[in-house]
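User: For documentation purposes, I need each entry recorded in a consistent format: the amino acid sequence on its own, followed directly by the corresponding C-alpha cells. There are two entries in this batch. Please keep commentary to a minimum and don't merge the entries.

Assistant: Recorded as requested. Entry 1:
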Amino acid sequence: MRILHLLTMVLILLAPAARAAQVAPEVQQQLFEKVFGDAVRLDPAMVARVLAEESGKRHYLDRDGDGRPEEVWFIDTELKHPESVRPLLVRVIDEDGDLDMGGEPDQDSDLYVADWNADGRVDRVLDFTDNDGDGDVDAQGMYFVGDTHAYFGEPSLRVWMTYDTGDTNNVMFYRGYDYQQLECQWRCGFGPEETLLAFALPLSGDRWISFWENPFVWYDHDRDGSPEEVIRFSGVEEFIETYRHSMDADGDSSPGRSLRDYDCSISAWAQGSRQGRRGTSNLTIDPMFSAAGKLRGIPTMPSITWASAPAVGRNVIWERVQFTWVEDDHNVDQQHFHDTNERWEGVITMGHNDFPQIGGPHSGRFNQRFELILEPERPVRMYYHPVDQRIHLRDADRAWMEVDTDRDGQAEMRYEMADANGDGFIDTWRVDVDADGSFDDEWSAADGVAPDELGYDWHDLHARMSQVLPRVPQLLYAINLELERALASRGGAADPLAAQLERGMRGGQIEDWLAHKLVSSDESLRFFLDVLKDRRLVALRRLETGADFWRSLDAARAGGDLEGMLAALAKLNGSGAADPAAAYAAWTERLRALDRPVRVGFRTVTDKPDDNLMWESERVAYRIYDGQIDVFGKQELLAPMLAGVTWSGNYHQEQTWGMDSLLVLETGGLGGVTLIVDGEPYPVRNPRGEGPHQFSGRLLRQDHERVTVEYTARNAGPADAPMTVRYELTALAGRRDSAVTVTVEGGRPEAKIELGLEMIAMPQTLLHDTGLGVMAARGLQQTAIGWNQLAILYPPARLARIDRHGGAHMIVLEIERDQPLTYHIHADWMRGRQINTFPSPQDWLGENQELATGLALR
C-alpha cells in the first residue's frame, strides 16, 4: 500500500523573497482579534490601573460577582523575561474555572495575553489546554505575528502548537511569552513523546495552513523519560518537502545522564522539491495517515499523525537521501566549538554540493560517517555489515568519513567505502591515515560474508547496537594492546592518539568536560580505538613483512573476525592475549575516574558554621539552621551551584542560579522535627534563633556522588529530662530528594516518644498515600517564588497519625530511643526545572509514590 502519493501538477513557483515587510500595529491587533476576539482587546483603564500599582501585584476581575475571578492582570517580574519587553503586562483568562481570589493562575486551561512594554497592544498569546480534565497541560499554543512572508503575500498569525502525546506535562519554555531559540531551546522538553506543529493563518484566510513543521514528533521507546527517536517532516500546505529521522540507536540517553543522545539520521528531499525552494514538492500527505483539527474554533489543514509518522517516512521513495552516523557520540552544533548540549532536533547532517542542508545547526564535518544515495529507486533500507560492525544505508552511491581526533579543525584521516560489485552493500574500505590524499590501506569483505538487512526501525537498530557495544570496544582495546607491543618491538613510533587516550582524551583543544564525556561513552571509545587500530595496522605493515602473519590477519579482517585478528597478533608477539573484557573494564575505570565531576557539595552559610549547614546536589540545596530545614531552588540548566561558588545579591530574590525557594516561618520547614513525649509536642527548633536548644553540625563524609552532614540538637524535649536528636542528612547526585536519618537519645526511659515530621502548610493542594508513606503538596507562598512542590516520604509501618501543628502538616511516627529512623524530603522549585513543565498535583504524588516504592523505607 502506498503511504504517500505523487501528484502530477504544476509546481508552485516562488520568486526570490523580497525583504520581509514589518506588520503594522493595527494589522497585528487585527490578526490576534481574528482568533481571540475580546480576550486580546485590552481595556486602557485596566492597563493604567495595573501600571499605577506595584509591579507583580495581582489584579483580579470577578465579572459575574460569584466570588471566583475569571481573570487576573499583573506586571510579570520574573527574571527570565528580557529587559527590552519590560514592563511586561499580562492578562490571564481562566478558562476552566479553577482560579481563586488571591490565588495564582495555572497552566492547564488558561489563556495568557502578553503586552510588551505595557503599551496597550497585544504582542504574544499563550494558550494552555487540559484536554482530559486531569489538571495538567496537554497542549500549548504559542501565537505570534511574523513578518509578511512571500509565500502568502499578506500578514499572517503564526502558531507553534505542541501536544503532550506521552502525558509528561512538558510545555515550551518562553521569554517574554515568546520562543527564542538560543535562550529557550534547552529549557523545552522536545520529547519524550511529543508532537510539534506549525500553522499560519493569513489575514484573509479561514483555516490554519500547515507551514514548516508538519509534524515534528518524538518517541520514548524504553519509557525512561528521554526520547530515542525524533522525526521532522517539513513543508507547506499538503506538500512535504523534507524529512529527517534521527535515532538514539544505542539507547544511552536518560534524564539523569543526557536528556538527548541521537546517534544517526536519515535526511531526505522529496521528489520535485527543487531542494531548497519552499513550496515546490510533488509529495502530498495521504489522508489515511493524517488528521485535521481546530485551533480556537478555526479548522486546521491535515497533518501526519504521531502514530503514523515512522511508517510514512520509511515507505517513501525520496529524491535524495543522506545517512549520517555520529561516530564520536558527540552530536552538537559543531559550528560553536564549545557547545555542551546534544541537539534536540536529532542529527542534522552537514550539507554539500550533492545534498543541500536541511535545517541547522549541522553536526559537523568530522567524525561523522556520511552515506549518500543520489537517485533512490526504493524506500530507505538499512543493513548491518559484520566486516566493520556498523550499520549502513542500503544502495549508497558514496560513503565517507573525515577524522579529527584532537578537535583542531583539521582532518587527520579519511575513510572511503565503496560498493564495488553494485549489489547495494559496501564491500570495500580504504583509509588515508595521514590525510595526504593517498590511500594507505584497503580491504574488502571476504566471499560469503553476508550483511544482515534491517529496516530503519529503532527496535532493529537498538537490538543490533546492544550486541555490538558490549563486545566490540573490548576486542578493539585488546587488539590495540597487541599492536602496541608489535610496533614497540620493531622500533615503531608511538601514536599520538594512543597518548591522548591514555590521558583520558584531555589536552589540546579538548576541554575536561568533553574529555570526560568521550571516555564515558563506549560508542565514542569504540570509534577512537577503531581509528587507532587502523593507523597502527598501516604502521605495522611498513615494518613487518611476514606473509603468513598478514595472510592470517587480513583473512580475519575481511570476515569481521576481531577474535581472529587478536589471535594473529598475539601469535606474532609470542604472548598470551589479555582477556578483552577484564582489560577493557580496568582501562575504562581508570580513564573515567580522571577529573570525574563532583556533583554534590557542602557549605556553611553564615558566621555560625556549626548551625547553618547546606548540603546539596546539582539539582537542589537543603539548609538546616536553628533546627529548621530550608530549600534553595536551582536553575538546573546552569552548571552545578556547588560549594565554593560565590553568591551575590539577596538570595530571597531570584538570582541567575536560583533562590531561597521556601519560607519556613516558625515551622520545621520541610522535614524539621517535633519530639512528642507522652503526647506533649516539643518542636526541635529555635525560631529566629531563640529557644533552649543547642545546635552543632559538621561535614560527615563526601565523595563525587554523595555528601552527608551531621547535625545535633541538644536540650530537646522536656526541660527536666532533656534529650538529644542526631541527624544525618544526605544529598545524592542527580536527585532532588535527600535522605534524613534521625536518632533520639536520652530522656526518661519510661516516657513514650514519637517523632513528628513537619511540612509547612501551603494554601493549595495536599495529598497522602499512607500505604506507601507519602505526603505531597503543591502550592505557592509568594508570586516572587512561584510554584513549589514538596514531599516527605516516610516508613509507612511506623505511621501513628497525621496531625497539624502550628503552621505545618505533621506526620507522627513511632520511634524507639537509640534506633535510627530514615525518611526522605523532596523539594521541587518548579521555576528551576530545566524542562518547562506543568504537572497536576496527582502527577507529583505519583512521582513520589514511585520514589517511595524504590526506597521501601522501614
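Entry 2:
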Amino acid sequence: MSGAPARRAVFRWAIRMFRREWRQQLITMAMLALAVAAIVLAAPTLTNSSSKAATLGMLGSADAMLLLPGNDKHLAADVAGLAAQVGPVDVVGHQELRSGSAEQIELRSQEPNGPFDGPTLALDSGGFPHGANEVAVTAGTQRLFDLRLGNEWQIAGRTLRVVGIVENPNNLTDDFGLLAPGQLPAPSRIALLFNGKRGAFTPPADAATDMYFSTSRANFTADAIVLAAGALGLMFIGLLASAGFAVLAQRRLRAIGMLGALGATEGHIRLVMLANGAIVGVVAALVGGVAGFLAWLGYAPVVEGIGQHRIDRLALPWWLIGTALLLTVATAVIAAWWPARAAARMPIVTALANRPSTPAPTRRFAAAGAGLIVVGLVGLAFVRQLESRWLVVAGLLLTIVGSLFLAPLMIAGLGRIGARTPIASRIALRDLARYRARSSAALAAISIAVAIAAGISVELTGRTLNTLDNAGPNLASNEILWYNDKLGAVSPAGADALSTLAATLHATSVLPLTKPRDLVLQQFDGGTVTSTTARINLATPEVLRHYGIDPNTVAPDADLLTSQVGLANMTDLNLTVVDKGRSIPHPVVQTMPSLPAGSEEPSLLVTPRALGMLGLSTVLDGWLLSTPAALTPDEINLARIAAQRTDGGVQTATNQLSMTELGNWATAVGILVALGVLAMTVGLLRRETLADRRTLTAVGASPGTRRRLAALTAGSLALLGAVTGTTVAYLGLLAYYRSELNTFGHPPLLALLAILLGLPVVATIGGWLFAGREPTAIARAALT
C-alpha cells in the first residue's frame, strides 16, 4: 500500500498511539497549553495595563483635540470656523482647582451625550447636572472633599449641590466636578473634540493652541511585544517538547521497526511522529486558548485597577491570538521533526533491538552556531548607528539560536571529561553524552532562561547606575512629602496644619527641605542634553544629621552628594542654572550611601560650596514627615484633606519597584524555570537508563552511588547552562553597549552568584534528594 491510502493508514495509527499514550505526553501538552494561555492573557493585559495619558484619555471617540486658552475672546467664531472645516465639534471647559495632593482636580463643563466625548463620561449613580448650581463628582473628588449625594460643595467661590457620581471610563484617575454645559464662567482652557487628521484643517490663528491626535500604534506595539515574547517562549518550550518526543520515539522504537519491516518508507515513519506532534499541538492550542480566555475574564477587573480605565472584555487582539494558536501547532510539529528524522533513518534491525541511536557529529552544528552568534553580535553592535528596532530583534534571535547549535558540542565535551573522573560522575556524564538529543535540548532551554535572567539583571543594574534620575519608588511607605506651592512663603494656616498632622500621625521627624531656584543637573550625550527630573535639595546640617552623615566627611571640593553610585563615574555632567547662563561643568560628585534612594526624597544634594559658586539663593521646598509605621489609606487621605485647605500638597509612596528589585525578580524566575527544566530532563534520562541502574544495583552499587548519579547529572547541566547563558547575555550586552562600557562597571554580584553558584548547588542538592528509591532486584524489561 502506498500513496494517500498509506498516509491515511499511518495517520490513523498515529491517532491510536496518541490515545493510548496521551498520559506520557501530558507534560508537553501542558507546557504548550500554558504558553498559549499566557499569550492570550498577556496580550489584552499588556495593552490595557498601562494607564492612558490624561490628555489622550479625553479624546473619547474623536480623532483630534484642540486646546484653546480659557480667555479666548473669539471662542464662538473659532468653534464655528473649525466646525465648517471638520464637522461636529464638542466643546469642553476646564478649570483647575487646588486639591492638596499631587493629583489634579478640576471643574469641567461638557455635554454628557456629545458626539465625541460620550466615552469620556459615565454615570455611576444619581444624575447629570442640569441647573446652574448643580454638580456631579467623581469618586476620587467625593472622597477627597468628603462629599455625598445631596451635599453642598463650597469650591472656587461657588456653592454647588452634588447630584451625581460620574467617572471617565478612559481614565479612572481623572478626578473632576462636572457642571452643565456653559456653566463654567472662567475656564482655564477649552478643549475642542472633532474628527480630523493632521494637516486636514487650519486651527484658529488668533489664539495659542495645542493639538493632540489619537493613535493605535501603542496597542500595536504592545501586541508585537507579546507576540515576540510568546514566540521566544514557544521556542523555549519547543526545545523541551523535542526532548519529550525523542523519548517517545525511543519508546516506540520496536513498533517503528516493525512498521518498517512491513514496508513503510522513511516518509511514512516521519509522518507518524509529525502527526503525533500536530495532534499534541492542536489539543494544546484549544485547551490553552480556552483557559487563557477564561483567565482573562477573571483578571480583567484587576487590569482595570492597574490601567485605571474600563475595558471591553471582548475587545481582544484576535489576530494575535490566532497567530499564537498557529505557532503552537507549528512548534509541536517542528519539535517532533528531529526525533522523527532520526527514527526514520534508523536501520530496521537496530530499531527492533531497541538500541539507542548513535549521536550525530557535533562539529557541523557548532560551526553554524558560532557563525550565527557572530552575525547576531555584529547586528547588535550597529543597532544604535542604524537606529533599527528590527535589527535588535534579529540580533537577539541569531545570538540565541546560535547558542542552541553549540549545545550538542558542549554536551559531547562533558562526556569526554567524564572519562577521567570517578565512576559515579563518569556514568552520569556519559549518559548525558549518550542521550545527547535530550541533554542538548535541555541545556539549550536552561541557557535561554539564564541568558534572559542575567541579561535583564545586568542591564537594569547598568541603567540604574548610568541615569540622572532615580528609577523606582519615590518615597518610603512611612513618609509624607508636604510640599509648598508658594515657594518660600508659609502661611500661618499651613504651618498649623502641618504641626497638627505631624502630631496626629505621631511623626518621628519633620525634616525641612530647601532647594536652589532653577538649578538642574544635565547630561551631554553627543548633541543631546538630558536634564534630571529628580529634586535637588540643599545639603543643610539638618538633612545631613537626619541621615547620620558627619559634615566633616563631606569633601571640601564636593559639589553634589548622592546615593546613586553611578553619578560619580559620569564625566558628561553639568550643574546648570536655567536661563541664567551660569553652570559648573563636570561637578565633583561624592557618593553617600546613607542618603535615601527615592526620587522625591533628598537623594541628590547640592553643597553650599556649589551654591556659592553659582550665586544662588534658596527657598523652602517642603517638609519630609516620617512616621513609626507604614501609612494607612485613612492617614494618607487625612494628609490630603489637611493640605488642600492650605497652600500645600502631599505626596506618598507609589509602591513602584526599583530596577534592582526587578532584576532580582527576573533572576529568581530564571532560576526557577531552569530548575523545572532540570527536573524534567533528569526524569527523562533516569527513565531511559533504568536498565543501567538495575545493573548497578545487581553489582552492589549503594543507594548513595545511585543518588550521586542524579545529583551529578542535574548539577553538571545546571553549571554548564549557567555559564553558557551568562556568557551569551554578556556578549549581547557588550555588543549593544560597546560605546558605554562603564555600564558594566558595577555588575549585579548577588544575581550573578545566584545564577553561577546557587543554581548548580540547588540543582545538585535537588537531584540528590529527589532521586527516589531504586530497584533492589534485577528485573527484565517487558518485550512490548
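Summary note for entry 2:
The CA atoms of residues 29 and 280 lie 6 Å apart.
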